[in-house]
TrEMBL record:
Protein name: Methyltransferase domain-containing protein
Pfam family membership, one: Methyltransf_25
Key words, A-Z: Methyltransferase, S-adenosyl-L-methionine, Transferase
PANTHER family listed in its UniProt record: METHYLTRANSFERASE, UBIQUINONE BIOSYNTHESIS O-METHYLTRANSFERASE, MITOCHONDRIAL
GO biological process: methylation
Domain (Methyltransferase): residue spans on this chain: 30-118
Length: 216
């Protein structure tokens, strides 16, 4: 729970809509990298014919298998060791996973698995870039508390989880001090994936969106 207000909520689920908006309209096959307990894979299942959800944690995969629909395949494996057929996915998405991985190793793997014209979209945690990001840190802390109060009220008034913390959330891996700032992520990503867009987001996240060129 939030130590100041007693209000906490799921920042990752807040970005589900953003990532869904990045999906191509004709997405047939989508890869969810670092699927955790499967919450986002369930969402993706409504936007693609087939979803592969991969995580290296046996506990996370077992939890995901309990909630995903039939068009989602849960895969236990390390994304860096996994071998995907080239150009096999229309979209590859990820929430709060890339900051656990070396970008120079994982991004080429994902780029190779993406079909030409496909989309790579991810949200992950950056190291805070101080003092440059002091204003956004202040806004994030304020938004966390204000939105947390609003979501808590909405949960009492009617249906919908309104970004409630999942009971399995405590089992998720946590990185309190990511190694790269958003600027450093942008430098690495644009060197590996020319044309990629990396932006600092509110609520302690950055976003990465890349459209694979048709001739790559």
């Amino acid at each position: 729970m939030d130590a100041v207000t007693g209000i906490d909520w799921n920042h990752n689920s807040f970005y589900h809509r953003f990532l869904v908006r990045q999906l191509p309209g004709n997405a047939t096959r989508v890869l969810d990298v670092g699927c955790g307990t499967g919450a986002f894979a369930v969402v993706l299942a409504g936007h693609a014919e087939r979803v592969d959800a991969i995580d290296r944690s046996p506990a996370m995969i077992e939890a995901a298998k309990q909630v995903v629909p039939a068009n989602v395949t849960c895969v236990l494996g390390n994304i860096l060791a996994q071998r995907f057929p080239p150009a096999s996915y229309d979209a590859i998405v990820s929430i709060s996973t890339l900051h656990h991985l070396p970008l120079d190793e994982v991004l080429p793997v994902l780029a190779d698995a993406l079909r030409p014209g496909g989309v790579l979209a991810a949200v992950a945690l950056p190291r805070t870039d101080l003092p440059r990001e002091l204003p956004i840190e202040f806004l994030a802390a304020l938004a966390h508390r204000v939105l947390g109060g609003v979501f808590a009220l909405l949960r009492t008034l009617g249906p919908g989880d309104w970004h409630a913390i999942d009971p399995t959330h405590a089992a998720m891996p946590v990185m309190l001090d990511p190694s790269l700032t958003t600027r450093q992520v942008r430098e690495q990503v644009t060197a590996l994936l020319p044309g990629a867009r990396v932006r600092r987001r509110l609520l302690w996240r950055y976003s990465l969106v890349w459209h694979k060129p048709l001739d790559r």
